[in-house]
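Researcher: Please translate sequence to structure tokens.
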Amino acid sequence: MTTPFGWEGKELNAGVVNVAIGDLYESDGRNRDVWVVDSIINVPKSGTMVRLSMVDGIAKITLPLHNLGISQGFKRVNEAVLKSAS
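Model: Translation complete:
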């Protein structure tokens, strides 16, 4: 998958998390939805944004890179952030 800003096949380091296209993230709430990274976009004045699509669902969302993390050994995205961004 090619992104407009040339991130294809590359990883970004978000603190302790390396983010790459195709990575899976799990929401940390009750639903435990699984999300896949579709694209990584550098937005002027906003920083790096990550486009996520829900696996087995129709939801898509764009979040700042710093909202992705690791919790208890799993890559996680905060459910509260997902709800506020949708």
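Researcher: Any highlights?
Model: Residues 1-16 have pLDDT under 50 and may be disordered.
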